[in-house]
Amino acid sequence: MRKLLFESLIRPPLTEPRPPVFDAAMTELAAAIERSARRRLGRSLSIRAVDAGSCNGCELEMHALSNAFYDIERFGLRFVASPRHADVLLVTGPVTSNMAQALERTYIATPDPKWVVALGDCGRDGGCFAGSYAVFGGVSKVVPVDLHIPGCPPSPVDILKGLLGLLENVNEEGRVS
Fold first, then answer.
1. How far is the C-alpha of 92 from the C-alpha of 81, rounded, in Å?
2. What is the C-alpha to C-alpha distance for residues 7 and 107, in angstroms, rounded to an integer?
3. DSSP 8-state class, residue 105
4. Which is nearest to 26 in space by CA: 74, 62, 61?
5. Cα 97 to Cα 24: distance, rounded to the nearest angstrom
6. In 68-92, which positions are buried (b, 16+ CB within 10 angstroms) versus exposed (e)?
7. What span, in angstroms and rounded, lies between the C-alpha atoms of 167 and 177?
8. How confident is the prediction along the chain (177 residues), in pLDDT tens digits per residue?
9. Which of 20, 65, 66, 96 is the most exposed place for a label (fewest CB within 10 A)?
10. CB proximity list for 165: less than 8 A, separation 6 or greater
11. How far apart are CA 64 and CA 117, in angstroms?
């Protein structure tokens, strides 16, 4: 036991390096999203995360946007707890049979203008879970999807780039062109 304790005092801690993102590029990307949201909506962008039956890989990357490294709230983007306060539904995972009705009700509860973003490969077509008896399919089988962000899982920077692309392609009626 002493040997183990002594070795743990000498050995440096095992940590992972921080993500390879340039701070200036990240700041510019988030600032561009804030400008686009204010121009399109007149206020910040509110995001409601909906887990439709995922493996939580996409959620980990999505929630990384709120950590100290990315900190998207400083740019006016925020996650909200209610679909009634949301502009964007960020849906992860294949839609399971149990979650299809809940996703549809969440979509109906979100006020216009609203956009749906399918996050990850599973959100597109069910991913590796497609064909399972418990999976209804991709997000577009339940609600209309405005944007798909590919990846398994997509990185936080890819999520931000997707949100910027969504806001840049919204026309005056609130439709994605």
1. 16
2. 55
3. H
4. 74
5. 43
6. eebebeebbbebeeebeebbbbbbb
7. 10
8. 778 777 877 877 667 676 665 677 777 777 787 777 777 767 778 899 999 888 888 899 998 888 887 788 877 788 999 899 898 899 998 988 888 899 999 999 998 888 899 998 888 888 777 788 888 888 888 999 988 999 888 988 888 888 888 877 765 555 555
9. 20
10. 147
11. 17
Tokens at residue 143, please?
């609600």
Residues present in the chain in total: 177
Contact between 145 and 117 under an 8 Å Cβ cutoff? The reply is yes
Asked if residues 72 and 160 have their Cβ atoms less than 8 Å apart, the reply is: yes
Q: Give the bridge partners for 89, in sequence order.
A: 48, 116
